[in-house]
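Lecture 7 notes: from sequence to structure.

We start with a single chain of 806 residues. Read the sequence below before looking at the structure.
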Amino acid sequence: MYSHLSHLFHLLLLFLPLSALSQADHNIYLESSLSTQDENLSWRSPSGDFAFGFRLLPERNLFLLAIWFDKIPEKTIVWWAKSENLLVQKGSRVELTNVGLILNDHQGQVVWQADSSNGEAVASASMRDNGNFVLMSIDSTITWESFDYPTDTILPTQVLRLDTELRSRLTETDYSKGQFSLRVQSDGNLVLYPVVLPWKDFVYNAYWASMTVGNGTELVFNSSGRIHLTLRDGGSYDLAAANGAPTTEFYQRAVFDFDGVFRQYVRPKTQISDGRWSMSWSVVWFLPEDMCSVDFGRWGPGVCGFNSYCKMDENQRPSCHCLPGYSFLDPNDKYKGCDHDFQPQSCSQNGSKKEPQFEMTELLNMNWMGSDYERYNYVNEDGCRKFCLHDCLCMAASFSNGNCYKKKFPLSNGKMDPSAGNKFLIKVSKNKSAFPTPGVARRKKDRSTLILAGSVLLGGSVFLNLIFFLVILLIAFISHRRKLPEVKPNSSMLGKNLRCFTYKELEEVTGGFKEELGSGAFGTVYRGSLALGDSADSATSVAIKKLEKVVEDGEKEFTTEVIAIGQTHHKNLVQLIGFCDEGPHRLLVYEFMSNGTLSSFLFGRSKPKWYQRLQIVFGIARGLAYLHEECSTQIIHCDIKPQNILLDDCFTPRISDFGLAKLLKTDQTRTNTDIRGTRGYMAPEWFKNMPITAKVDVYSFGIVLLEIICCRKNVESKAGNEEEVILSDWAYDCYREGRLNLLVENDQDVVIDGRQKLERLVKVAIWCIQEEPALRPSMKKVTQMLEGVVDVSAPPDPSSFVSSLG
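Now the structure, written as C-alpha cells:
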C-alpha cells in the first residue's frame, strides 16, 4: 500500500510546475539517501545554519549520524542518532523511505530507525532552520522530529516535556551515554542525577532539583535565550533569564555536558572583514554554580571518579586531580578516577608488620564523602598518622581539631574545600615503586615449588601422579580448615562489626554501674571505661545502656536496636560499639559523648552561639536524612527531641537512642505501630490512627528546629504572654506578622547574620510541622532548603498543631 502511494506521489511531482517545486523549501523526498562514502554530502536547512548527515570522528575513524551547526568552523554537533551501535564504518548509508528514516551499516544491517509516530506513510523530510529534523506525511503533517528525541543539547524553540531527559555524553569526544542525566520527571520536578555505570539507567541520589513537584509541566528554551520550567499555576521557574543575545545575531545552545553541568552557550553569527570569525562559543550561564561543591551523598564516584578530587579551574569548570602516589586510570579521560602506583599494604599476618614500608603524606583542606569507616577522638596528628599506618585497611585519614577519621579504599566524592580546615593524610609507599608483599611472594614461591614437583612427577606413572595429587588436595584442605576462624554464638550480630561483652565485663568497667548518666523509658545509661585499642593501657569512656524492660517487648526492642544501630555509620549518629545478651541481661555499649544532651546545652543558663546552633541544625538534618534514605533498611526514629541529641567534644550533634526505631524494608514507606515518642514532639498522625511514615520524624525535627532558633522549649507555661506559651503557634504568628525579631530577642549574633537566614530557618520549621504529612518535605529536601540549595516558599498555617499536644 505504502509503495503504491509512493509511486503515485512521485508521478504527481512530474506534472507540477518548477515554481511549485521551488516552494518545497529544501524538502527531502523518498529514496533520498546519504552515504559515508561522500562525507561532505549532507541535508542542509534553508539558511544553511544546520546540516543533517554523517560526521567523521577522526580519532576513531568512524562516523556518527548527526545534526550540527554547519556555517561555523567547529561544526558543533547538537543531536545524534542514539543506538547501541551509534558509530558506523565507512560504507554505511541512511535512506528516507515511506516507513521512516533507516540507517544501515556497512554490512547492510539496520542499526537505527526513525519511524512515523502516527502510522502514516512518510512522504518527505526537512532540515529546519531551528535545528529540528522532521519527517512529514503527504499532507505535511509532522510524523517524527529530532526535537522529541534529544541527546545532550536543546536549542532555541525546543521544549522538553514530562518524562524526557538530556543525557550527558561519556566524554567530550565519546558520544556514548555518560554518567549524568537531566530529567523533566512525570511529577513536574526538574532533576539532575548521577547515573550508575554501566547500568546506564539506574541513578544515585539527585545533586540538584527545581523542587517543583506537582507544578512543573515542561522545560522551554525560547527564542530570546530564556530557559525556564513552565508551571501549572501559570508561573515559571527560571533557570536562565534572557541573556541579551538575540537568536537573530547569535547561535545558541544549552548543553548538559559530560561533567554533569548544564551550560548555555552563545556564538556570534557574523564574521569579521577578512572572513575570520570574531570569537568561538562562550558560556553565559550554568548550573550547578560549583560542581565540586555539590553533595552526591555517600554513593557513587562523584564528578571525578574514585580516588580523584575535584577543583574548580579558572574557567569555572571542574578539573580532576590524583592524590600523591596515584595516577589517572586513563590519562586521556581524567574523569575516570585514579589508582595507586604502588602495591598497597598487605593484611596478611606477615605483611601487617611491615608498615614502616609506608608513610603518610599530606594535603590541606580536602573533603571526601562516604569513605569514613572509623573515628578517634582526643588524638593528635601524630597519633592519627600511626592509627592509619598500623591499619592495613586504612588508605588515608582526615585530621582536624583532635578528630581522626580513617578512610577506606576506594575514596569517593573528593573535593578541595577551603572551609574544611583539615589535614588529609595519604598512605603511600616509601620507595615510590610497586613491590610484592611478603605474603604474595611466599604464595608465588609455593606455587613455583608445586609446579616444579609436578613437572618431575610427570615422568612417573599415572598412578603415582594421581596419589600425589590426592595427597596435595588433602593437605591443602586440612590447612584451610585450620585457618578458618572459630564461629562464636550470636555470629549474626557479630557480623555487624560489633563487640560481644559479658555481663561481668560491663559490670567491672562501670564499677558496678555506679555513675548514672541518665535514664529513659527503656533503661538507664551508665558511664564506663574500656580499652578499645591494641593497648590495654589506653582506656576510653563509653556509655552503657542497661535495658530494664526486657519482658516480651523488651527482647524485641533490644534486637531492633542492635540490628539498626550496628548497620549505621554517619558522623551525626551515635556509634554502637557492642552489646551484651546474657540471660536476663541486655545492654548496649555506645561511644561516650562528652558534651551531654542538646537539651542541657540549649536550655542552660547561657545562650549558645548562633553559629553553633546552626551547625547543630544542619547536623541533625543530615543524620535524619541518612536514616530515612541512605540506610539499607529505612529507619524511622520516632522520638526525635533534644534529650536524644547528644553533643561530642566538638559540639557535633549525634542522634541517639534507636530503642524506639521502627524499621521498614527498602520497598516499604508506611507502617502502623503503637504510639511512641514524647508528647510535644509527636506528629498528629500518632493520635489519628493514621499510617506512620518517616514524616513523623520530620515533624519532630521542625519542633526541635524552632527550639534551637529560639533557645526555649516548645511549651513554656511561664511565658510572659499567653500567645507565647506554645512556641510553634507563636513562631507562625511572628512569621505571618513580620516580627521574627521577637523570636531571637537580644541575640546579636542572629542580627549580624541577617534576617534572610532567620526567615529561611523559620519557614523550613513551619513546613516541617504541617498537620498533613504529605505537605511536609522529606529530610533530604529539608537539608537542601536549610543549606540554600533550593528556595523555600511561603508555608501555610500549620493550624492543628495544638491538638497534637493531647
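Residues 462-483 form the longest helix (22 residues). Keep this in mind for problem set 3.
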